[in-house]
Amino acid sequence: MAEKKTTKKATETKAPVATKEATAKKTATVKAVKATVAINAENIGFKAGDVYQALAAAEKALNVKEIAKAAKISEEETLLGLGWLFKEGKLQNAEDNKVVLA
């Protein structure tokens, strides 16, 4: 009688199932990353232009959060641009911590 040869099938490997804890740790790590702001004259000048355009379009006094939202830049970048514009005399203070074009 002839013997039958048996071959072993390669076992399939399954990817490990992610637990809620592992997923939460990954999410927490991703959220902790912040964007950095390049501090150089060219970048700050561009941010000042963004701030100026946002104030010109609004035609009223805005606070830092409102300017950042209108210009689509971060609050840190907004503050850099405001500093540039204040130094040039392009802005003046308004009531309630708001600024307006001079």
Walkthrough of the structure:
- With 102 residues, this protein is mainly α.
- The chain has helices at 20-31, 41-58, 64-71, 75-88, and strands at residues 91-94, 98-101.
- The chain has a two-stranded antiparallel sheet.
- The radius of gyration is 28 Å and the shape is rod-shaped.
Task: Tell me briefly what this model is.
This protein is mainly α and 102 residues long. Helices cover 51% and strands 8% of the residues.
Characteristics:
rod-shaped; mainly alpha; single chain; two-stranded antiparallel sheet; 102 residues; 2 strands
Q: Strand order, biggest sheet?
A: 1-2
How confident is the prediction overall: mean pLDDT?
82
Shape: rod-shaped
**How much helicity do the residues have?**
40-55%
Content of β-strand: 5-15%
**Count of extended strands:** 2
**Segments where pLDDT lies below 50 for 5+ residues?**
none
**Could you give a short account of the major beta sheet?**
2 strands, antiparallel
Number of helices: 4
- The helix/strand series, from N terminus to C terminus, equals HHHHEE
Rg calc:
28 Å
Ends: how far apart? 104 Å
